[in-house]
Amino acid sequence: MELQKITHAARRRYEDACGAAHALDLVGERWALLVIRELMLGPKRFSDIRAGLPGISANVLTQRLEGLEAAGVLARKRLPPPASAQVYELTPWGYESEPIFQALGRWAARSPSHDPSLPLSAVSLLLSFRTMFDPERARDLDARIGLRLGEESFLVRIADGRIRAVRGAAAGTDLVLTGEAPAVAAAVYGGQSLAALEAAGALRVEGDRALAERFVTLFPLPPKVA
User: Fold this and answer.
1) pTM given for the model
2) Rounded to an integer, what is the distance from CA 103 to the centroid of its chain?
3) Going from the N-terminus, what domains does the chain have, and what CATH number goes with each?
4) Which among 85, 94, 102, 136 has the fewest CB atoms less than 10 Å away?
């Protein structure tokens, strides 16, 4: 009997008219969703994407980028001089996927086996803020918080019970938190005190101390399922 060659595209397709099945045809490969996540706050170079996903190989990342580009989820572009670097950026349709990440994140955080102490990237942390933010806890708060997470800087703006978390300079803010993303996550989601993290050299708090203590309480995780 002659063996048929099964192509990569054939393996990925479910041949099912359901929209969810087609979504898995588009982004169901391992690492694909996390590649999209890393681009959710703006374009990145290949090396920067890989730095946010330390478990992915260069070969697999290349495959995922090519597949997502072919699907229309992201596009390549070259930055103007002096950078002159090639970056990957989500298309407008690609950016529309953020609610999917938020719904998945809230749902999966209820799992008893979810461990918020595991490593996470800076982008993942910022997206978690946009997902878990509790407007009721911040209803009278008006603040600008800067985050220096490794080599990346972000700006969190809270006002009128809403949050905006984007890439941006941390200067001129009411508060600046400096450290790696897991250290900030330990304060926000892991229940570790800011003082303990500072004493360990994992985090530096500059500016409004009371605001820092309040900020880390604004992102409660949902209750675990029984």
Assistant:
1) 0.89
2) 13
3) 9-96 (1.10.10.10), 103-215 (3.30.1050.10)
4) 136
